[in-house]
């Protein structure tokens, strides 16, 4: 029997299935494509800046927009490289076999949630790019084997990924731990760096991170649609990522019936891979022996580059994996400059300072971290990059923390943890995972709105109560 998918039928179905289904329906009907949304946000911020910002005039706004649009390109490339190198690791044959083996254990929706949340959360805690890719690929592998609602499953993966700004690839935590980093505002103000032991591994960060994963696992189990409402994975409709043979360079090098050419032998030789691994590992060994083990954005990219090269083995295999990763990063390439422009407007016109100062002016040493968290929730919806966000908000909350003698690590991580929360409503980071999974983002965001509400409370209480 053909299913009625008209808007009226969807609305009636939503009413019958409760709040979650209603949220999914609303997001499908109201939310535009993420690129279009970023343009709408640009218009909103521009109008708001002209209306209330202290430097809200047209020349300042235009100059700030241009500066922000092109000033973010270096950071954007770093973020895209994290995603691409994470993709190359996740797509390595040994990792793919592991994902298939894991997926085989998910025989029901409940088991799928119990599997996806811890696996994706650990991957995201290690590296946000790896977490995105593992979440998308694991969701597809499970959905091929089990009848689950695919949007629900992908939303669960994205919810598990949300804890990444509390992990080892947190832009804010890493930048404050990295000597000489342009975003290390603590070092610029005090001459000191903030080690990860005081941020990522501190109880007020680690405890709510674990709690969000555990609580949301069981909430998602309860949220799975009834059997008659499940929209399963449509494998025939997916444009699957092809293996290396789909690449024109790989096809040309196949050389059926001919002896391998010099170019083919060079592409398939492990010597090139070994050279890069030796260079990268040698640099890390030298640097860490002199300065101690130190993770920042660039060393994180380098480590994942080396791991991916080792797992893919040959230069051509790694190059093909990166080419396939590039298909998923196109939307990010498009959106980063737009959000850079938004960030520029907010910073250049003083709009961001107004938002941050509105909270800071009423703060005490005890309340500053939680007020930093609340203001970050608002700013994140407009500047969804943690590093770019810190560049906007950090210059206001950090001096306040120093002058009030409030906890600098807690204040900084309040900004980072709010990123975790707001990302569940801001679709910027969901774009890669839904592109790889092959599903419309609107259905996913209806579920993650619940994650937003739950994690909002958990992180706030942790900032307030956990030592």
From TrEMBL:
One GO term describing the cellular component: plasma membrane
TM segment ranges: 35-53, 65-90, 110-138, 200-221, 269-286, 301-321, 333-356, 362-383, 446-466
UniProt keyword terms in alphabetical order: Membrane, Transmembrane, Transmembrane helix
Region: Disordered, residue numbers: 234-258
InterPro entries reported in the protein's UniProt record: SCFA_transpt_AtoE
Pfam families in the record: SCFA_trans
PANTHER family tied to this protein: SHORT-CHAIN FATTY ACID TRANSPORTER-RELATED (PTHR41983:SF2)
Protein's UniProt name: Short-chain fatty acids transporter
């Amino acid at each position: 029997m053909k299913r009625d998918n008209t808007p009226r039928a969807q609305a009636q179905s939503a009413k019958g299935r409760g709040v979650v289904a209603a949220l999914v329906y609303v997001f499908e009907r109201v939310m535009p494509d993420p690129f279009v949304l970023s343009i709408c946000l640009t218009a909103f911020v521009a109008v708001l800046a002209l209306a209330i910002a202290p430097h809200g005039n047209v020349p300042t706004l235009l100059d700030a927009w241009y500066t922000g649009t092109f000033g973010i390109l270096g950071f954007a490339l770093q973020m895209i490289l994290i995603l691409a190198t994470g993709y190359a690791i996740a797509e390595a044959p040994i990792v793919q076999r592991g994902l298939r083996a894991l997926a085989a254990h998910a025989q029901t929706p409940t088991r799928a949630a119990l599997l996806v949340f811890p696996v994706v959360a650990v991957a995201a805690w290690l590296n946000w790019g790896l977490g995105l890719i593992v979440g998308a690929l694991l969701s597809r592998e499970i959905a091929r084997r089990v009848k689950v609602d695919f949007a629900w499953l992908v939303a669960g993966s994205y919810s598990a990924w949300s804890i990444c700004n509390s992990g080892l690839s947190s832009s804010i935590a890493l930048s404050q731990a990295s000597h000489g980093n342009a975003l290390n505002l603590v070092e610029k103000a005090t001459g000191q760096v903030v080690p990860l032991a005081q941020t990522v591994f501190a109880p007020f960060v680690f405890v709510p991170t674990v709690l969000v994963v555990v609580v949301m696992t069981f909430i998602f189990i309860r949220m799975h649609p009834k059997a008659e409402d499940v929209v399963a994975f449509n494998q025939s409709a997916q444009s699957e990522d092809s293996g290396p043979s789909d690449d024109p360079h790989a096809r040309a090098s196949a050389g059926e019936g001919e002896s391998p050419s010099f170019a083919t032998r060079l592409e398939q030789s492990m010597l090139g891979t070994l050279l890069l691994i030796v260079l990268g590992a040698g640099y890390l060994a030298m640097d860490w022996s002199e300065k101690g083990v130190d993770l920042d954005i660039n060393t994180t990219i380098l480590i994942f580059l080396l791991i991916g090269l080792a797992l893919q083995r040959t230069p051509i295999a790694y190059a093909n994996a990166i080419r396939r990763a590039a298909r998923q990063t196109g939307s990010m390439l498009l959106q980063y400059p737009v959000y850079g422009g938004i960030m520029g407007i907010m910073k250049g016109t003083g709009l961001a300072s107004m938002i941050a100062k509105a909270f800071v002016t009423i703060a005490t040493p005890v309340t500053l971290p939680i007020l930093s968290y609340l203001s970050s929730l608002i700013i994140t919806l407009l500047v969804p990059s943690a590093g770019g966000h810190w560049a906007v908000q950090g210059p206001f909350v950090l001096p306040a923390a120093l002058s009030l003698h409030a906890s600098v690590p807690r204040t900084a991580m309040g900004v980072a943890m709010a990123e975790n929360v707001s990302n569940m409503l801001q679709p910027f980071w969901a774009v890669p995972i839904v592109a790889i999974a092959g599903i419309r983002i609107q259905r996913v965001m209806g579920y993650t709105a619940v994650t937003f509400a739950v994690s909002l409370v958990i992180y706030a209480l942790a900032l307030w109560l956990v030592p």
